Amino acid sequence: MPFSEDLQEKILEYVYGHLPRDEWYEDKFYTFIADETLRKRLIVEYENSRVIYKIFEGLQAKDELLLAQIKTQVIMFVSIQEAVVNYVLFDLLDDKDLYKISCFKKGLHKL
After folding, report:
1. I need a surface site. Which of 1, 38, 46, 51 has the fewest CB within 10 A?
2. φ/ψ bin of 20: left (φ > 0), alpha (ψ from -120 to 50), beta (otherwise)
């Protein structure tokens, strides 16, 4: 059974009231990413992770629910970081010799 509309409005006001403004994303959120589609997707994922966090925070999650909050946050933020690292390796550094050498050389080596 869903929350009442009044409660839904209060939760959404609380949650979205704590998200960064659009200017923050323009000035500070992975500004080196030139792929606008990827960057917009990362912003959506970041906002989703913050929304879920704020819901857990508003519930004052404890015990197993707190563990669920932490696990959810870790998974969501690691997913964002994975996409960023992938972009750096395969879009920004793809044509760099140092990157290519380090990918195909076995064992430890000095770069």
Report:
1. 1
2. beta
Instruction: Please state the φ and ψ torsions of residue 105, each to the nearest 5 degrees.
Output: -90, 130
Give the list of residues 6+ apart from residue 38 with CB closer than 8 angstroms, or none: 83, 87
| Local confidence band at 89 (pLDDT 50, 70, 90 cut-offs) | confident
CA distance 57 to 50: 10
How many residues are given for the chain?
Answer: 111
Which token pair is 5? 């509309």
HSE (side-chain half, CA atoms, 13 Å) at 110: 0
Q: What pTM did the predictor assign?
A: 0.80
